[in-house]
Records
---
Amino acid sequence: MSKVLDAKVLAVYQVAPETYYMELEAPEIARLAVPGQFVHVRCSDAQDPLLRRPLSIHMVSRPKGVLALLFRVIGQGTELLAKRQPGDTVNLLGPLGKGFTLPLPGSRVAVVAGGIGAAPLVFLVQELANMKCQITVYLGAKDKKSILCDGQFTQMDAEVVIATDDGSMGFKGNVIDLMERHMDWRKTAMTYVCGPKPMMQRVAALLAAADVPGEVSLEEHMGCGVGACLSCAVKIAHHGQITNKRACADGPVFPSWQVVWD
Amino acid sequence: MSKVLDAKVLAVYQVAPETYYMELEAPEIARLAVPGQFVHVRCSDAQDPLLRRPLSIHMVSRPKGVLALLFRVIGQGTELLAKRQPGDTVNLLGPLGKGFTLPLPGSRVAVVAGGIGAAPLVFLVQELANMKCQITVYLGAKDKKSILCDGQFTQMDAEVVIATDDGSMGFKGNVIDLMERHMDWRKTAMTYVCGPKPMMQRVAALLAAADVPGEVSLEEHMGCGVGACLSCAVKIAHHGQITNKRACADGPVFPSWQVVWD
Amino acid sequence: MKPNLQVEIGTMLMANPVTTASGTFGFGPEYTPYLDIERLGAITVKGTTLEPREGNPTPRLVETPSGILNSIGLQNPGVDYLIEHYAPYFRQLKTNVIVNIAGNTVEEYANLAAKLNSVPGIAALEVNISCPNVKKGGLAFGSDPVSAAEVTKAVRQATTLPVIIKLSPNVTDIAAIASAVEEAGADALSVINTLLGMAIDIRKRKPVLGNIMGGLSGPAVKPVAVRAVWQVYQRVKIPIIGMGGIMNAADALEFILAGATAVAVGTASFINPRAAIEVLEGIERYLVENNIDDIKELVGAAHG
Amino acid sequence: MKPNLQVEIGTMLMANPVTTASGTFGFGPEYTPYLDIERLGAITVKGTTLEPREGNPTPRLVETPSGILNSIGLQNPGVDYLIEHYAPYFRQLKTNVIVNIAGNTVEEYANLAAKLNSVPGIAALEVNISCPNVKKGGLAFGSDPVSAAEVTKAVRQATTLPVIIKLSPNVTDIAAIASAVEEAGADALSVINTLLGMAIDIRKRKPVLGNIMGGLSGPAVKPVAVRAVWQVYQRVKIPIIGMGGIMNAADALEFILAGATAVAVGTASFINPRAAIEVLEGIERYLVENNIDDIKELVGAAHG
Ligand SMILES: Cc1cc2nc3c(=O)[nH]c(=O)nc-3n(C[C@H](O)[C@H](O)[C@H](O)COP(=O)(O)OP(=O)(O)OC[C@H]3O[C@@H](n4cnc5c(N)ncnc54)[C@H](O)[C@@H]3O)c2cc1C
Ligand SMILES: Cc1cc2nc3c(=O)[nH]c(=O)nc-3n(C[C@H](O)[C@H](O)[C@H](O)COP(=O)(O)OP(=O)(O)OC[C@H]3O[C@@H](n4cnc5c(N)ncnc54)[C@H](O)[C@@H]3O)c2cc1C
Ligand SMILES: Cc1cc2nc3c(=O)[nH]c(=O)nc-3n(C[C@H](O)[C@H](O)[C@H](O)COP(=O)(O)O)c2cc1C
Ligand SMILES: Cc1cc2nc3c(=O)[nH]c(=O)nc-3n(C[C@H](O)[C@H](O)[C@H](O)COP(=O)(O)O)c2cc1C
Ligand code: FES
Ligand code: FES
């Protein structure tokens, strides 16, 4: 079940270049949400920009009824969103989509995050930590300044290994290179991936080659967000058949080996 | 000469129901402006609402480089404008249009304001007071709460007579009724009028019947504001000929006897 | 006193003049978490074809100023699937379900109409004639009066359901098409489908949409849609379902005053899932506030 | 190295591809406080008719979502006044002046073209064929290929100036009209004029505009305009001046990539009086950043 409601902004601040953290009062959504789901956010009251913007649920505090977003300013919508002040309201539609498949409690899992892809994975690691999983997070970004959520992951007792393109923090290179060295992820029950498409495609290939199950969170341009408009089609192979699935309603999380990358 | 520039909001507050006062740092415009002129204000950075909004120059302080607006929240544009905070910027195009014709120094003049029509007349009375004119202001509104600028007019040594529709302040009735009792305006060098169109039309008739010169400030929906698009046509009779004039460039102030009311 | 909101589209009785626009509301269940769809006068469901369709390559959607371009390409599971899986659901609904159909040839339209004719749960057919006529080099059926009338006749003969022809705005003279399909037996008209448009990605130097061109909808098109309803109303006697950029009751009232008997809410549902119900409530409020007993008094009232 | 921005519209050389859209820029002087109009590749001035025109009743303008509807009705002082009062000013300008003309009959267009032919200071004629053909019951010249071609031929024969035909988007097949006017001797095309639209005042229950219908322009129409340029580019060889909702350089580049050799900035000037110059500067910046030596490399580049 999902809701549409005005949520009060509790806090908003910049956490990295062009990246904002926002806390919203939305108890109904916080209560229902599972990791990997998203909210469809109205960034303007006017008719331009018109559409909502899909943003992952970054964290929730059910006792406090709080939902957090972590987003990068890309264009008009996210720019307007970043300007909201505490006390303002933001209209949310959610929680939407199908989240990550959780493993058995105590499992060993890997989490792979590229750039802003870290956003939904914090909520996931919250849950995994509650389930006493053994978690390794492979965290990549352009440079040290752009590394997101490393502190949060560490606090939740996840092992965090970092890669930056320029080597300003952790391993110098990208997350794929990093994974190719650290082979621990081969022994996991599940690898969860979120990041830029080319990176997810390469991680999916890595997982497939090692025959390790994984899940990726896909991004497609969305209209409705609720499965009605078929804008967000992604090609999914299942039992030898390729069909269109809706990123918003059938995903955004899909098994890494089923995605037909183009 | 007119400018287009980003002006910093210095102050903004509500002064009456749905009515806001805004102070902007705009020295170039303050320096050039004369009473009766307006600025064309961009109320949104997005493309909806698209057009600028014409607002009269309410007051200027040339030494401080400050320009003030007084506006009523009517729709989308003015609503967005009222939400600006000190420190924000507002894009202004101005000063635009042809202002009021000033009388000889020391003249006896009348000023007639209906509702938000008081906005440009404060700047006018500033100038008239500097010219040591003898000023009577006929000030009308729906009720006491909606009477605007009476304090300002009094401070500038203008005589202020008030009419409210419900009698909650001053004379009970409209400004026309008030003028019909107070016949002083018949002895003036000029009567300046700004308010709702039907009121201006009736005042113009009153002035014509008494053969007293007057000027009215007209409102028309505007595109460019600079005389290029011909959206803001008003019918003006001159030497027996009726022609289209542009409210933005040839006005907004026109001789009361020349306006062809429809 | 509650004003009378009931309107008729052919023999279909609508409790109120509000429906949804095809392709923007799925098959109904997608929006049930947000509103009671049975309160609407009807729901109009996704375009259906004879065979299942995969639709167009992605991206299928791009935002434009106050609008969106879409090129879904009629992805749908086919009419047989609809009859088997959705019709039983439609039947339970306490509102009308309008099924939107699309074909490549006149025969396909006729077949679709015949297949859907006796299916319980379906209140009316809306015929999308903005599709390319495969036999005529891909020109849309809706782009000339003759082929528009042909489709209308074929559907008319194949069904006893009310036939609503959905007009394309991408024509020189929409009233001429309207008149031709009225003559050919249409019970009502939907006005308008999307405007043909496109967007270019200046970084990639290629069209944004996988299918190059798409259909423009949303508030941006409202002035064109109101004008189309106005022109069509002056030419035909059959009722019009107005649509194109309706975001709220005020927008819907523009269409009704221009001549629409009913209205459809499309793109607005993406922005506000409760848009259709809010349009309905707002229309009712307007009638009450203006002491109007019957919505029909407003239909075309702006023509003076 | 500075990229080459020069383009040719027929025999008219433009130092850069940016001009203004007729009716949105007056006769030039209105905008000189805000930008150096001589830096533009050309300015296109207000539509001119044989006799002076009073224009339409007010309101003549209404804002719509991301757009405006206008029904100025070609208010203008007439061609003789233009020749006498504005041409001397045009002559002094260090840029091209394109004069936009409009008529009620083919003869009027021919007369206008003949009168303007030998006038110094005028670089080209842009022919607005969206006007009603008085002899054909008011159907717009631009709405069918035959009458569009007739106007083109008549103007072509009456002048040696470059002839730019300005196409209406309110047609079923804009490429067919484009092709017909190319054949009839047009040197270039302006694509597009405004979309026919209207708005209704729900309080007064009457159309907002004094003239009932008006022309829709601004960002709302951009997707339709880009599509039109794309379609026309595929059909004709003559250069296209693209316009319709260009607000900034990114928008202008969409038109160029779709096939426009030059672009016109219209409604945008109302919102930002410096828009035309900023479009020019932005195009130049894009070329530099992408190491493109010549704007011509981009024209139609999205067709792949
Ligand atoms: C399920 C899902 C979850 C997401 N979670 C996050 C998150 O937690 N943090 C974050 O920073 N970003 C996230 N994104 C991406 C985010 O939606 C886009 O960055 C955002 O929509 C850009 O909007 P804009 O107006 O700033 O940019 P513009 O480029 O101006 O947007 C124009 C249009 O393109 C769409 N668009 C642009 N980029 C994307 C994209 N990557 N994915 C989908 N639509 C896009 C916009 O929604 C809008 O309709 C997520 C995307 C999806 C699909
Ligand atoms: C020369 C001039 C000076 C003005 N000075 C003032 C002033 O000092 N204070 C003040 O409160 N108002 C003034 N107005 C009126 C003011 O411009 C409108 O109230 C304002 O544009 C409404 O915008 P909106 O978006 O809030 O309303 P909406 O109704 O949403 O506006 C829709 C469109 O209609 C136009 N519009 C609506 N009402 C008017 C109107 N009365 N005149 C012109 N265009 C209108 C808007 O500009 C916009 O394009 C003045 C108008 C003119 C022409
Ligand atoms: C995503 C999307 C899908 C659509 N699919 C269909 C369709 O299958 N059949 C059809 O006749 N119209 C379809 N349309 C057009 C709408 O039904 C409607 O005519 C148009 O969008 C204008 O209304 P709006 O501006 O309120 O959306 C679709 C529109 C959108 C936005
Ligand atoms: C107020 C106004 C007046 C116009 N007058 C004319 C005109 O006289 N002749 C003409 O050919 N086009 C006229 N146009 C159309 C524009 O030149 C242009 O084709 C159209 O507005 C699309 O461009 P835009 O969206 O950038 O404004 C006018 C447009 C506007 C907004
Ligand atoms: S966004 Fe509409 S179906 Fe996914
Ligand atoms: S608003 Fe453009 S001429 Fe007055």
---
Amino acid sequence: MSLLELKGITASYGPSQALFGVDLALEAGEVCALMGRNGMGKSTTIKVICRMLKQSAGTVQFNGRDLGPLPSYKAAQAGLGLVPEGRRCFGPLTVYENLIAAARPGAWDFERVCALFPRLGERVDQIAASLSGGEQQMLAIGRALMTNPTLLMLDEATEGLAPVVRQEIWAAVATLKRESGLALLVVDKSLAELRHVADRAVILERGTSVWSGRMDVLDAAVADQYLGV
Amino acid sequence: MTRETLLNIVLFAILPATALVAFALDEPFIITLATKAAILALAGVGLNIALGLGGLVSLGHAAFFGLGGYAMGILASHAQSYTPLMETPFLIEGTKSMLVIWGVAIVTSALAALAIGALSLRTTGVYFIMITLAFGQMLYYFAISWPAYGGEDGLSIYVRNEFPGLNTLDPIQFFAIAFGILAIVLFGAGRLAKARFGLALSAARQNAERVETVGLTPFRLRLVAFVISGAVTGLAGALFADLNRFVSPTMFSWHTSGEIMVFVILGGVGRLFGPVAGAALYILLEHTLGGLSEFWHVYLGLLLLLVVLFARGGLIGTIAGREVAHD
Amino acid sequence: MSMILLIEQVLNGLQFGVMLFLMAAGLTLIFGVMGLINLAHGSLYMVGAFAAAAVAGWTGSFALALVAALAAAAAAGALIELLVIRRLYDRDHLDQVLATFALILIFSEGTRWLFGSFPLFLDVPAALAGPIMLPGGILYPLYRLVIIGVGLLVAAGVFWLIAKTRIGIQIRAGEADREMIAALGIDISRLYTMVFALGAALAGLAGALVGAIQSVQVGMGEPVLILAFVVIVIGGIGSIKGALVGSILVGLTDTLGGVLLPPLFGTFMQASSATSVGSAVASMSIYILMVGVLLFKPSGLFGGK
Amino acid sequence: MTDPLLKLSHLNKSFGALKATDDVSLTLMPGEIHALIGPNGAGKSTLIKQIAGGLRSDSGTVEFAGRDVTALGTVPRARAGLGRTFQISSLAMEYTVLQNTVLGALGHDGGVMRFFRPVMKDRRLVDRGMAALERVGLTDQAAKRTADLSHGQRRLLEVAVALTLEPKVFLMDEPMAGLGASGSKRLTGFLDALRVQAPILLVEHDMDAVFALADRISVLVYGRVIATGTADEIKRDPTVREAYLGAEDAA
Amino acid sequence: DGGKVKVGMITTLSGGGAGLGIDVRDGFVLAAKGNENLELVIEDDQRKPDVAVQLTDKLIQSEKVDVLTGIIWSNLAMAVVPAATAQGKFYLSPNAGPSALAGKGCSPLYFNVAWQNDAFYEAGGLWASENGIEKVFLMAPNYPAGTDGMTGFKRTFKGEVVGEVYTKLGQTDYAAEIAQIRASDADTVYFFLPGGMGISFMKQFAGSGVDKNVMGPAFSFDQGILGAIGDAALGVKNTSHWSKDIDNAANKKFVADFQAEYGRLPSLYAAQGYDTALLLQSAMGKADVADAAAFQAALEEADFASVRGDFAFAPNHHPIQDIYMREVIKEGDVVTNKIVGVASSDHQDVYGADCKM
Ligand SMILES: Nc1ncnc2c1ncn2[C@@H]1O[C@H](COP(=O)(O)OP(=O)(O)OP(=O)(O)O)[C@@H](O)[C@H]1O
Ligand SMILES: Nc1ncnc2c1ncn2[C@@H]1O[C@H](COP(=O)(O)OP(=O)(O)OP(=O)(O)O)[C@@H](O)[C@H]1O
Ligand SMILES: [Mg+2]
Ligand SMILES: [Mg+2]
């Protein structure tokens, strides 16, 4: 049984439909890349998984449990961690408060997050809104890790990060996967990086999953057709 | 034609239709109510320019409403008692001419809005709400304790002011005046919202930083909007005073500001006809529920609550749906 | 004016300030921290006072009356939150204004329905009645000192809750981005209901405590509402410290304005008009203070943003 | 040699104890793309704000087109021809995509105190807005509410609004962020062509784009410019590699 | 002899001041009970002047009433009375008597069945002068009713005013004023604080331990309010034209009937409402309301058995009546008033001279 399984998801924002049938499966401890051009429905899929948006058809199963009737906070408590698009740090709160606001006990704690992102450690009492863009990104990742999820969803988590930090994060992702058995669903624009860490990939095109399979079989022609690389 | 346009036409027709039917049935009081609705809608249209377009939640619009009212009260009471308003340095006489009174009401409230706006617009959000409230309250307490024009007792004007060619004491004719002004102002406000100024003002509400980076000054846009808004509400105040032939500090009280705001929210914030719908509904409720029970405010409250909970975007929002971005 | 009288008036101002804080404390939670515009705050204050007066009338016990005030206001608060406010979080602030305005109508007239149109009797308990002698020879009502004490305790409690506890952090996070804090696994709805009920309970407590030396009547909450908003805005929204400082500033301004302005105007005006003009300016003084503060600090004394 | 269009001399800015901008001097020549790179929190966005006028400098001067604009606020600088895009999209979210660009055109045109003629019937403004949308490839979305755009589409709209201003200089804070690979590629080509219209001061973490576009690159670390040079010089600079690029030059 | 009369009553039935309006209404209804010629239409003005004016128009234009009554507050009366009399309708005031309507603004159609606003204060000043009070401290809210009241007191008071404070309308905390009172060498505090303001002041004054006499007009010590003040009010002297212990048959019947009908003690507002209805019915028995001159003459006769005892109209249609001094006492568990003397007999207002009608 898969850790996460989406079947035939359709979803709309009010009158405008964004997803037209998304299928996705992810095993425990696996890293899955969710890919597609801008506006194809990646973030919407993630919103459906963490119940920020209710699907109009289809099912979402997590750990054998139907997430359909659950409110967002219960889905999170079930083990979903989210680094949302656009960071969404709690602006008026300090770095420390952002990190502990929703923390749950587990392997990840404040010290460990600060060790991963030393810049955050130096700024514990700074207001999140005044952090640089990249620092906010680190904070959003740290905040999600502090909830000690089983599945971490990274929506453009490396956007705006300096290359060195990006490399650190990918290294951290690789470590997370290897050592703590954390499953990840990753949206990112860098195919090269994803090839390194992801086990499998799903490609969205106009709100439909058009390709899915193991990362190593994703060939250049498909990538070019759907991702334009 | 969109649903909203259709609805607007209906709303626009509702007041004169009511007034005409009442006229035919010889129910002058219903005409008075329609007139009241038109005047309060006018005040709401004024507020809506600041509130709906500019995002300036002013809880001090009673200041302008009251200034308009007192412009009428003071001028007319001097005319009534044949005493000049001022003798030095030059002579100012009272007047019973509506046109002059309107002019004075508009200019006074515009100037007040300029001063209050220039100070208040340094703040934003709830701070703005409260600072405008503060200015309103200052005028209220001033009016209450200033004995020259009646203080809390207010001022009675025994006869309605004059408008060339019309008998203003005849309810239907006075209605025509009030509604005519409302129509003109609605037209103007509608154009303003779609004009360059409206686009920039509304953008400043959504994102001031964005407006600055395209080289426009939000402060100036807002101040101009606030002045226009205050002037319209001031004009409504003068009409309201004439409707009642009476002014008192209640016109300055924060309840008045709140009520005008309720009209706007009830009808639909930022909708051109929102205040018309809101004022008409509110007055309808007030006068039909009033007879039901001593505790009719409970019913009024429940009805308002139902509207907020189940009618998103006010009456117009519910009936016409989400705002369609203008073409 | 003698020095001792001036000192006494300053003390009165401070006392009034702390009393204002007590009245504003609930609103500080609901409005300052949760970011909800709750015009019905004054109604909850009134609910507390009426519940206290009713229970004190039945049982004769002030302690039971206070418990009743807390319970009734908290219940009313929780009910409001569950039935009304909950549906309005993701709406425009203005919808909250309209909804809570409607609630004022319902509460005021509902209370009149239940308790009649005449003010109720609620008095300070005998043990706390009467004045005591302060150092310096000032006679001061004991009950007012108790109010100061309770006010400061509440201030400390609320400050601790918001600034130091995880619940406080979560509430503030919810105010910044509700959807996000929920997506991180916090049941923000339940939390908000609880905090709203707590804010309501504080309003009710204030209503009962202050009602004992004021008049318990329909509409008693309205001046409180405005004062509480003034206090919070002067102090800076979201800051408990600000609310306390704001309260004391307002208390001092109002008290000393009323005492000092009429004679001040008397120094350059005719006596008869000086009292009236002086008093008129005094009634505006807290608004003048607020405008002054906001002109120099557009987001209040301790406002972050 | 031609004069620089934009010249920063000895700019400083501190937040409390933190020196976010530390004695920065930079120039931007007509026709060039000058990239500004550096670790997160190095002070790049701060510098952009200082140039655009959103943030007062503690000391130093900003000269633009031969004129000292240090004392001016955002609005006059924008009017003078500084066009800026934000790192985090800053748009009028309730407006349609087209309205956002028309707003830009209106800013360029001035004359905002007009109360009567419908602005969306003003051919000149609308055409200019549409033209900008076309250049970034958002024509299809023109009638959509901006709030309904995906993240990447908003990033493109940011650029489009800057275009309508026809600025003399572009200040772009991470325009590629959030764009997918194809989007980045497209925008890279577009910016390449844009530099003839007006030079660009480009803050970007996308090294493919930076190396492809930049005539000159300055590296900012802890608020200081530690190196300025061509792409090749920067790639070879060991301090830059350690502080910023890491293994990136493999690309 | 009289036909039917339609009466429009506009009074405050909702919101903070509703208690007064309800008492006026109940008193009126009690006195008019069983009179089939008297048709009553009641409207709630919510204490808003503009609503009151509009209701006036409604009652006159749509309901076609002949007589209006009911207004509680001076500022509403200032709005309604001119509007009613200008349209040729009678107005009988059951409460509120602003000076403007007693003097220059008087009208043949306007009758005040309560008092001119200054009456209680003038009587208070007289009584104080005659009862050895030398130094008073005056306090009232800063609005016309307050300042006029204090002026009325000073008009007749012979002693010294050692302090005079005008508070914010609606003020609820009086610590500062009480400190001033304590510091002054006044022997008596004379104050007018209507409604909740008076309750707050009295409770706080009692708790402060300041030992001075307290006096005021009846408004702050009426039955509806005393219950909320409790023992703190005991011993306070207040002037009133009515008290439930006035010894005459009409009053005894009124008090008994009122308690039987509504289950509570009547207030002075109830008494005024009651008298208003009696006056109206006395005139109805003499003239047809359609004949305005005759009806006016009938009203002027004031030929009814007032619960206050002797009652007559001065030429400006304002009462000539005794004003009593009452003291707050406790009867069993109930805090109430007892008459201790007449403060001013056959009191008449001073504005009549300006009234030209
Ligand atoms: N809040 C919203 N309301 C309405 N429509 C939306 C909303 N958010 C996204 N959309 C639309 O839904 C579609 C999918 O958007 P989504 O954000 O899922 O794309 P994405 O693949 O994440 O793109 P990007 O890479 O640009 O972030 C887009 O066409 C977008 O315009
Ligand atoms: N208002 C402020 N108060 C305190 N510190 C601030 C403030 N604004 C920015 N900073 C700090 O200044 C430093 C520079 O921030 P800036 O946003 O300029 O970085 P940046 O180079 O743009 O980084 P990124 O690439 O991550 O966007 C950061 O460490 C940030 O935390
Ligand atoms: Mg996305
Ligand atoms: Mg940056």
